[in-house]
Amino acid sequence: MNPQMISKRIAQELLRIRAVFFRPEEPFIWASGIKSPVYCDNRLILTDPDARREVENALAETIRREYPEAQALMGTATAGIAHAAITGYLMGLPMGYVRSGQKDHGRRNQIEGRMEKGQKVVVVEDLISTGGSVIEVVEALREAGAEVLGIASIFTYGMRKGLDRLAAAKVRNVSLTDFDRIAQMAATEGYISDGDIVRLIAFRDNPSDESWIKK
Questions:
Q1: Would the pLDDT of 102 be above 80?
Q2: Is the pLDDT higher at 1 or at 90?
Q3: Of 31, 33, 43, 103, whose Cβ has the fewest other Cβ atoms within 10 Å?
Q4: DSSP secondary structure letters along 146-213
Q5: Where are the beta strands (DSSP E) in 37-187?
Q6: How far apart are the first and last CA of the chain?
Q7: Regarding beta strands 35-36 and 28-29, do their DSSP bridges make them parallel or antiparallel, or are they unpaired?
Q8: What is the pTM for the complete model shown?
């Protein structure tokens, strides 16, 4: 399946299982304080066998195509762990995961699972917004001696801050689907109006400018 078809299929699945919520009249507030007309809960993928099958097969296909040299997958804690495990199983690759911080007991690991220095690794992430957390994972892996080929994520908002951070960290991200695809498909399938798309894109382009709320 080509990337455009994958993007369409994954967007359809996320909308079908209500993993993407649209609430432009009553914005969600992220942990960062950003007000958003959209909230994406990719954990719901795991509870729907059909969506899970679509997503994991798409991740496997995407990683084979975009990162053919991959030797191991590393999930982000916690949302990326299950996806890295299932995709690793489909691909016959080892997997591990990276904690948000080092443990304060036992072996004090931040990286869980065996990883050899120089190993070519792909990070598996469920979604990317501003990019901060996934870049911390990449940096931890690099410090441990991994060669990080890039990130494979399920969904990206495509925010300028996130794109700039990824570029500055010199890390590539390939997402199965993105904010623009979801918004267009949501309007086509009647989840939102065509007028809402303008507000959604205004948010994506500049989350700190809350004028989209009043449009």
A1: no
A2: 90
A3: 31
A4: -EEEEEEEEEE---HHHHHHHHHTT--EEEEEEHHHHHHHHHHTTSS-HHHHHHHHHHHH-TT-GGGG
A5: 38-40, 72-76, 95-98, 111-112, 120-128, 147-156, 173-178
A6: 38
A7: antiparallel
A8: 0.93
Q: Cis bond leading into 78, ω under 30°?
A: yes
Mean pLDDT for all residues in the chain: 92
pLDDT of 108: 58
Report the chain's C-alpha Rg in angstroms: 17
Task: Give Cβ neighbours of residue 39 (< 8 Å, ≥ 6 apart).
Answer: 20, 21, 23, 28
The strand pair at 120-128 and 72-76 is best described as parallel
The residue behind tokens 């890295």 is: 84
Residues listed for the chain: 215
Return the closest-CA partner of residue 141 out of 94, 92, 99, 86. Answer: 99
20-22/38-40 β-pairing: antiparallel
Q: List phi, psi (to 5°) of 144.
A: -85, 0
Mean pLDDT of 55-59: 98
Q: Which pair of structure tokens corresponds to residue 61?
A: 């296909």
Is the model's pLDDT at 31 over the cut of 90?
Answer: no
Which pair of structure tokens corresponds to residue 47?
């509870």
